Amino acid sequence: MSDKKHSPVCEDNIVHEDILQKVTSEMPEEEFLYELADFFKVFGDTTRIKILYVLFESEMCVCDIAKLLGMTQSAISHQLKILKQSKLIKYRREGKTVFYSLADDHVRTIINQGVSHLCE
Amino acid sequence: MSDKKHSPVCEDNIVHEDILQKVTSEMPEEEFLYELADFFKVFGDTTRIKILYVLFESEMCVCDIAKLLGMTQSAISHQLKILKQSKLIKYRREGKTVFYSLADDHVRTIINQGVSHLCE
DNA sequence: TATACGTATGAACAATTATTCATATGAAAA
DNA sequence: TTTTCATATGAATAATTGTTCATACGTATA
User: Fold this and answer.
1) Smallest Cα–Cα separation from B69: which of B57, B82, B85?
2) At what angle do helices B73-85 and B62-69 cross, to 10 degrees?
3) Is a pLDDT exceeding 50 seen at residue A1?
4) Chain B residues in contact with A23 (beta carbon < 8 A)
5) How far does B81 lie from chain A, in Å, by closest CA?
6) What one-character DSSP code corresponds to residue B29?
7) Is the CB of B111 under 7 A from strand D?
8) pLDDT string in tens for chain B (120-residue length)
9) CB A25: neighbour CB atoms within 10 A?
10) Taking the alpha carbons of A1, A12, A23, B62 in that order, is the dihedral positive or negative?
């Protein structure tokens, strides 16, 4: 918890030097911040969250996810691609069918973190 | 880790009953899923992430955040509103100045979760 | 090979969203 | 009260994004 204070410097045109140094040293690089935002963006869509919840229960093929969620195969496939790119899910092919499953338990942890924040 | 498997049922028009029941019983209500997605959406923007990183260091007034990030006061104020609505930050007024700070350490935990996922 | 089926994907459209601009609010000082 | 300064906010614009539609790809089977 940061209980430090600093007086506003809005009259000047420069922020206090010590704060400025601390902030700029702790702030990740621009590119990393974009990756970070993109990562969280993945969880910022109900369809993708629903897909993840479905995969909490069982590995599943695309058409079954689509049926369970009452959406088109195409829509699900597009979202699965995004989840795959973020390395939140993995897949294995079995003939014509592709089975998707959670990449690891990280996903559960992150979603639960969000859930517990909302339930406070 | 879910290591259960189920054969695809894409020929039929119905997903296996047991899976369907499990999924629908574990799936949160639609409204909650929207709140959850909206919550993660907040972290899905670099400006807001930057603001949170700045507040990791110190409580700060709007104009200083704007100066630190090289953005307009208006843009920052709009984003602070969103962060406030999500209860990620709090504020206190001191004369004309409004100081913003993190609501609790939850924010740090969530961001670090994202960071560690990216760094794997 | 030809057909069928499950999945992937590019383009287009509709909806959402971040920033800017102009202006309003709120508080202190003249 | 009037002015000044910090912050908030509504409307407009530009950019991003989710879904649909049409179609392509991959694999198995006839």
Assistant:
1) B57
2) 110
3) no
4) 53-54, 57-58, 68
5) 18
6) P
7) no
8) 333 445 556 766 566 778 888 888 999 999 999 999 999 999 999 999 999 999 999 999 999 999 999 999 999 999 999 999 999 999 999 999 999 999 998 899 999 999 999 998
9) 8
10) positive
Note the Cα B66 to chain centre separation in Å: 21
Contact state of A27 with B54 under an 8 Å Cβ cutoff: yes
Q: pLDDT tens, A5-47? A: 455 567 665 667 788 888 989 999 999 999 999 999 999 999 9
Residues of chain B contacting A109 with CB distance shorter than 8 Å = 113
Find all residues with CB under 8 Å of B25, minimum gap 6, and list them. none
* B73 nearest nucleotide via C1' and CA: D7
Q: How many residues does chain A have?
A: 120
- Residue showing tokens 């990216």: B118
Which one-letter DSSP state was computed for residue A88?
Answer: S
Distance measured from the CA of protein residue A26 to the C1' of nucleotide C4, in angstroms: 57
Give the pLDDT confidence score for residue A99 in this predicted structure. 97
Structure tokens belonging to residue B36: 């959850």
Asked if B36 and B28 touch (Cβ cutoff 8 Å), the reply is: yes
Residue B61: list chain A partners with CB under 8 A: 8, 10
**Cβ contact A10 with chain D strand, < 7 A:** yes
